[in-house]
Amino acid sequence: MRHELKIDDRTLSYLDFGGPGRPLLALHGGLSEGVAFKALAQELGDHWRVIAPDQRGHGDSGRATAYDREGYVSDAVALLDHLGLHEPVALLGYSLGGLNAYHLAARHPERIGALIGVDCAVEVQPGQSEWFAFLRGLPYTAPTTGELLAAAGPVGGQIVGAALRRLPDGAGWRMPFHPQDMLDSIEGCRGDHWDAWLGSNCPALLVHGTDSHALPREQADAMVARRPGTSYAPLDGDHFVPFRNPRGFHRAVSEFLATL
User: pLDDT for 118-129, tens place per residue?
Assistant: First the structure.
């Protein structure tokens, strides 16, 4: 079920898939939204209560003035407080969401009981963002969905095709994110994040698409080796492994959560 909370004058929208199980906070990747975890929530059934926000600037959540780690992490903490989840929860994050997740675990270790990072790097280099070049010059709104999809091209169209939103006045459509916000968010990810990855000591799992362009195998191996208590789940697939290989992804997450 979809809910929302207000943070200052901004809306944070989130999906709470419900159930009697333990809470699992799931943070989606860039240019995505919380509904991306619908299949995972169904797979976990009543064992886990999956809560998946549309992170700032994504989906049904409002735009923000900044897309740095501080902003993303503070939104997640505000959501946990809003839900009354003060005991440690399990935390999963994919790509951008994975980066936000391990920063959250490092800054608030008392709130996080287990960490699952899904194809999230700790060394983000400028060249790795060129895949998102289609965002440059992309319109935010248009009178028809066809115009937005044509502007996005084949790469962008695959991402936004089913996620376009009708404008409140009904006079057109908008992207599920503002292109400039996403460029700012990508820019904010660049750099060395080893301190944050190593800044928590809860049980952790790194799910890795072995053909990923975003997380080289050598870096994934080092992340597992340098962080105590971290398991490794290599899966056939690229950076989009949760969606290219959903069966393997669901199995890896379920098996790790069963050990907690």
Answer: 999 999 986 555
